[in-house]
Design a protein that fits this description.
Strand order of the largest sheet: 1-2
Oligomer: single chain
Strand content: 5-15%
Number of domains: 1
Shape: globular
Distance between the termini: 16 Å
Largest sheet: 2 strands, antiparallel
């Protein structure tokens, strides 16, 4: 297996964010009358917790997007476009339990900001794993051969 490094994984997540944005921006425009919401629009300008129903729905949708695509298709649309897939160490799709673990741990891998911890772990481990991959027993691999 050819394990995926930091750069291609960041490309895949940027592609996924573009897909999600293509849905979220129009929905926000329809629901809130604006394309981009300010902190006060989120109802969290005076606290740390998001309480806006639209924002909570978007957070749930983002989480489910990653969990379900990786569990059942083996890759999100961004990973597919980048030629990546998520597999168990012996091959095959990760399934729902592993996908849940790896995606819940994105919070840890995102520390201190912008995925720095995850990026360092991916760059320095032989099998290119972040904490989420290690605990879920998954790997991100290249699904197509390099030219």
């Amino acid at each position: 297996m050819a394990y995926a490094g930091v750069a291609i994984r960041y490309l895949a997540i940027l592609l996924d964010l573009m897909v999600l944005s293509a849905v979220f921006f129009p929905v926000t425009r329809i629901a809130k009358g604006t394309w981009i919401m300010s902190a006060s629009d989120h109802r969290w300008a005076h606290g740390w917790f998001v309480t806006d129903p639209l924002c909570l729905a978007f957070l749930a949708a983002i989480f489910l997007y990653f969990v379900l695509f990786e569990a059942f298709a083996g890759a999100t649309p961004g990973k597919m476009a980048a030629g990546l897939r998520v597999v168990r160490p012996v091959g095959g799709r990760p399934g729902l339990p592993r996908s849940l673990v790896r995606n819940v741990l994105r919070v840890v891998d995102g520390l201190p900001a912008l995925g720095i911890l995850g990026a360092v772990l991916i760059a320095t481990s032989g099998d290119r794993t972040r904490i989420g991959d290690r605990l879920a027993q998954t790997r991100v691999v290249q699904s197509r051969a390099k030219a």
